[in-house]
Amino acid sequence: MLQSYKSLFWRYYREKLDTHLSTIEAIYYFLVEYHRLLNPEVPYTGQYDNLLFFFKFMYFKIRTLYDPLKLKAYQSTDSEAVTEFQNLKVADQSQ
What we know:
Elements: H1 23-38, H2 53-65, H3 72-75, H4 79-94
């Protein structure tokens, strides 16, 4: 069984916990845990991190395009998104 991981997915899930992972997050965490299970003596060094390339790209794109104060996906538990968004806005204005 997978450990609990907090999803970073940007879409709002009605009445779901923040531990409901997106498909790519679930695949990624499965592979990392499977690696650790089969090779407990070999530390995980990021072999599967490239799976999250497009996830990371869209994650930051969504966070720069939309105000987290207005998106339901950010309002429930992600106060860091608000701070990050405000910092991005300040950085954009200074350029």
